Amino acid sequence: MDREDEQLLRRRVYGADHDDPGPGPLGHRSYAELVGGPLDGLLLDITGWTPGEVDTGVALATELGQFDPGSRALYDPRPGEPRSAGPGVTCRFYNCGDTP
Question: pTM score, two decimals?
Answer without folding.
Answer: 0.81
